[in-house]
Each structure stands twice: as structure tokens, then as C-alpha cells.
Design goal:
Order of helices and strands: HHH
Radius of gyration: 19 Å
Helix content: over 70%
Number of helices: 3
Number of strands: 0
Largest sheet: none
Oligomer: single chain
Shape: rod-shaped
Length: about 100
């Protein structure tokens, strides 16, 4: 399968990339870091709209932003979940009764 070439002969854009990040962004919004996940959803939807119009430069830029915000949301969410789990473990193992 061939993908549309980017202007200037850059790396070809995979049309499926626009929809791939939408699912991950929704997951990140619900389970991880809501503000960054919402930004990921917005850019993923913008990429899909640009794809339907055939604006491949906009698709590329919006997919990159969707990926960035989604991965940041997942990373920060995992970090906060981990810190919370360690804090809960340390609190429960301290032996202090209130």
C-alpha cells in the first residue's frame, strides 16, 4: 500500500495514524491524565478531519500533536498512579494506628 507523500519529499503519512491515536487519547483521558488526554483527543479529531479534506500537512502536524499529548498523558498518569501506590503501601506498612 502506498501512502500520500508529504510535500518536499518527506516521510510518507500513514492515513491510519489519524485514527490510531484517538483510541489511545480516549484511554488516557479516562484512566490517566484528563487535561492532556483531552488535548490528544482534540488533535486526533483534527487530524481525521484534515485527512478527509486531503490536507496531508495538517494531518501530519495534528497526528504529531495527538501523539505527544497522548503519550504525555499516559506517562504522567502512570507516574502519578505509581506514586499513589507507593504512598499507599508505605502508609499501610508504617504500623501506625489512628
Amino acid at each position: 500500500m502506498t501512502y500520500p507523500a508529504t510535500p518536499g519529499g518527506g516521510v510518507p503519512i500513514n492515513p491510519a495514524a489519524a485514527s490510531r491515536w484517538l483510541g489511545w487519547a480516549i484511554f488516557a483521558t479516562v484512566c490517566m491524565c484528563t487535561p492532556l488526554g483531552v488535548a490528544g483527543i482534540v488533535f486526533a479529531v483534527l487530524a481525521q478531519s484534515a485527512q478527509k479534506r486531503g490536507d496531508w500537512q495538517a494531518v501530519e502536524g495534528n497526528v504529531r500533536k495527538a501523539r505527544l499529548f497522548t503519550l504525555l498523558a499516559i506517562g504522567l498518569g502512570a507516574l502519578f498512579w505509581g506514586i499513589g501506590a507507593v504512598g499507599a503501601f508505605l502508609d499501610s506498612s508504617s504500623g501506625t494506628q489512628y
